[in-house]
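Posting this for the archive.
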Amino acid sequence: MFNWGQDIGIDLGTATVIAYVKGKGIVLREPSVVAVDNNTGEVLAVGKEARRMLGRTPGNIVATRPLREGVISNYTVTEKMLKYFITKIGGKFIFAPRIMICIPSQVTEVEKKAVIDAASQAGARKVYLIEEPIAAAIGAGIDIAKPCGNMVVDIGGGTTDIAVISLGGSVVSESLKVAGDKFDDAIVKYIKKKHNVMIGERTAEDLKINVGCVYPKIQDVEMDIRGRDLITGLPKTITIHSSEMLEALIEPAMMIVDSVHSVLEKTPPELAADISDRGIYMTGGGCLVDGLDKLLQAKTGINVMIAQDAISCVALGTGKALDNLDSLDGKKK
């Protein structure tokens, strides 16, 4: 029986929703996918169940991702998804929980309001927002309150957030809509163009995880995949090598590197000197693409570190930020 209002931190990601409950740690990690019956508007499945349905549903059922590029693209479905996850975390609340949600660093006021409204409608007593790079920095164990510069590159599913953080706030930040999803799209396009085979999102993601790379590997690895031959229209199995993945992924990877470069150019010299000493921290699931840290290091000449438990960093940081909710007056909504 719950007789207190829990504080919940939610990393509302384009690809995954991760929730942190004060005193318990991470309690939920589910894909942000919702299956809806188009005829009745009823939600049939959320999370892992719905992800299995992606690309495999009959006409009246649509498995969608209600967040695109880090922002809400389908408000009603996002609200239902949040309600489902909040109920799953806490059962029935006697007091509604306070919820802190991560948002990309460059979202508009309208997009912020959509997140706050969706969480309030889903049952939050009060909603706080925190910028993703700041949450990621806290989660990576960086002391952001000190007067020295730290650079965080948070690569999620929909957005990459780059920020230079000092004294608890971001000094220079940039958010670009190139991240894990764009890598998947690049793989789908490449295989269609080079092999005349059409593959789905999930196969592209498997390729990215298993053989994807953005920096030449010492040993070429390969993986067999199935898709639809565009000439015959029949299923076809092909073998893909990591050297081909390098060709497919280098363009979106370089867009991220160029953005890091432009943030460094705008950084005040004192903070730039700190970053050069302390290195660049990478967080988020997207940073786990093989060789992305090496590529960034080679192009900037600055040491690049991947944070421990990179995927959960933002959620962990949000959870730690819950401890000082009352001092976060600037973020109160």
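The first strand starts at residue 7 and ends at 12. The chain has ten helices and 18 strands.
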